[in-house]
Amino acid sequence: MGIVPDWLEQKAKEAEEKSKSQTSLQKAEVIQLPLWAEEKCGMPNGFLRSALFGAIRRGSRRYLQQEKVVSLDGIELIYTGQRLDQGDFDVWGAALQFARQQNLGEECRFTAYSMLKVLDKTDTGGNRKVLDNRLTRLKATAVRIKSGRYSYEGSLLDAIYRDEDTREYITVLNPKMHVLFAADQFTQLDWNIRQALNGKPLAQWLHGFFASHAKPLPISIDKLHKLSGSESTELWKFTQTLRKSLDQLVSTYQQHRLSFSYEITDNLVHVSKTPSKSQRFHLAKKARKKRKSST
């Protein structure tokens, strides 16, 4: 065997280095959702602080075509698809629960039984049909959201199909969605509290909205009416449902040994609640920064 020319040896080294570089880059591009606990569910704040998943009744719903969704200041949200309700929120949240254990963009497999178990639903033909419909609706969506420096445009589910041999669902989430789960862009909801409020859409929406704030500021009843996507056409009727829903939150928080209280004065809703561990850290950091600026 002859001597390998210097130039050929150099080319081989360059090819090897390029291969190593590409492998490192591929490893660096591995993207996962934050790995929250089983009893929690991560959800982007932009979705919790808007009417995207509205407090609406079950049944027929409007189709929106690139329509601006009501949201808090600082959030821009454009949506195309059938209106989404709190049941759709639960299914998407459960899909995130499964997907958080692997890389975004990879196929995520689960059975109808396992999904319904997360949703605290019995494994019946009717519930499977509803699950099918909700997954299809989540796939047929187009969301454009901008919150602060972060933005995302795409479907809530990139793909959804079934393995007819194993009877498993297979879902895929867009890797670009990870920007919605940056440290200050999402909230870890207490899934047990949410499930305890099942069948109470406004109470569920309020739970998500107030959970997304470390220390909620007073907010008007009219603003909550619009943000929740309520279909109530008369504000006085919405106010009655709002009080009932807030009472349900107080009771449910107490059952889980957590604090939640509210007061309505001059059409403003004042809420006090137990902040999460990360929110307590945020509040402490904010207080330290304020003390430094005042000295």
Q: Helix segment count?
A: 10
Q: What is the H/E string?
A: HEHEEEEHEHHEEEEEHHEHHEEH
Taking the alpha carbons of the first and last residues, their distance comes to 78 Å
Question: What is the radius of gyration computed over CA atoms, rounded to a whole number of angstroms?
Answer: 23 Å
Number of domains: 1
Q: Count the strands?
A: 14
Mean pLDDT equals 89
Q: Looking across the biggest beta sheet, what order are the strands in? A: 3-4-7-8
Percent helix:
40-55%
The 3D shape can be described as globular
Q: Uncertain spans, ≥5 residues at pLDDT below 50?
A: 21-28
- Which class of secondary structure composition applies to the elements? alpha+beta
Description of the structure:
The protein has helices at 6-28, 45-48, 86-99, 112-118, 125-139, 191-196, 201-211, 221-227, 235-255, 277-294; strands at 40-44, 53-54, 63-68, 75-82, 84-85, 108-111, 142-147, 150-154, 159-163, 168-172, 186-190, 219-220, 260-265, 268-273. The radius of gyration is 23 Å and the shape is globular. The chain has one domain. A hairpin with a 2-residue loop joins β13 and β14 (268-273). With 295 residues, it is of the alpha+beta class.
